[in-house]
Amino acid sequence: MDLRADLPLHQQITDLEQAAEHIRRARRILVVGCSGGGKSTLSLKIAARFGLPYISLDRDVFWLPGWVARDRAEQRSIIASRILEERWIMDGTNPSSLDIRLPRTDFVIWVRMPRLLCIWGAVSRWAKWIGRTRPEMAPGCIEKVDLEFLRFIWTFEQKFAPRVAASIAEHGPDVPVLQLKSRRRMRGLLDLLGAPA
Question: Which sequence ranges are marked TM in the entry (predicted)?
């Protein structure tokens, strides 16, 4: 399957040097993709390299302590406020808010790793943070992996990727998009940016 086929050709950035140049100039970067794929790690490295304020949808918008979901209207209000900031890198997919995030975005990085790699990423992250809350999560949200979460990852490409692609085409038709489909490409991008891989 050609993973690029669902995005308009004029939006696709396939050359890593070209992507790195976009990132260097960007004031607002959106990083989307499946859980466990490396979105947060990549976002934090780019944020540190370019001094971009880091916004985690999980930490700053979705979750209250103890994995309590914040009210949807409040979530949207927080996002609407944060996107008005001059500079940011925003880590999180949430297709239902792409309509307000994409028009403010200069560049999209879609971390689109194979699902087994995402499952491995989620499980190894859980093992690393077992019994603790990782920095990009809301306080009191102890790292967890359950069957529902693994099912979400396994079906992400089928259920959510088409929504992401449709939202990008509709709400950010002129926003360039880089899809990262391997760890090697991710490391290559970070090398070009001068960020620690």
Answer: none
